[in-house]
User: Fold this.
Amino acid sequence: GGETLVQGKTYSTNWKPSGFPSDALLNISYTDFSTNTSYTIAQNVLVRDGFYSWTVPTTILGDKFKFKVVYAQNLSISDSSDNYFSIVAPPPPSITVTSPNGGETWIKGQTYNITWKSSGLPSDALLSIEYVDVSTIGGIHYTIPQNVLASTGSYSWTIPTTALTARYKMRIYTRDTSVTVVIDYSDNYFSIVVPPPPSITVTSPNGGETWI
Assistant:
């Protein structure tokens, strides 16, 4: 009771047996009490196992479900969830750019990690990464890599020395046309700048010292 299960995900249904023979078997089902419809999950599961892995159907939604386990050799012995659990649809797929996400100053010729978080995408989903020059009307898009696995969560990028000194936003989006197009940009601008000129700073002696 009180749990929220997501369509298509796999969960462990658990029970605690007491006083059964070692070969006792259970039948497992769940009931949608909003329609009074019962669905069989499995039959003849060993009671002593204490659990059964169950993948939630993608066709069922609601908030008034209960599990039921029944001793197969004596149907009068059973137990159900004390209260209702819910089945909900999975959240829509998403990508969130985490770095650069605004305020960073990155230097031409140096290497940085572009990072993101993804959710709800297939394990083999591919991404494209672009940096967008927002100093121009409509923005100019420069492609970094294509076909990067979303599941990696990061890409090591050496900034071209030819990149313009400007403000940018990182843009990451799905390339696979078989999945819903998902796009995210950096929340704010980051900057690409030229490397600082070489310098030397004397730190000691720097004034006021008395050396013998």
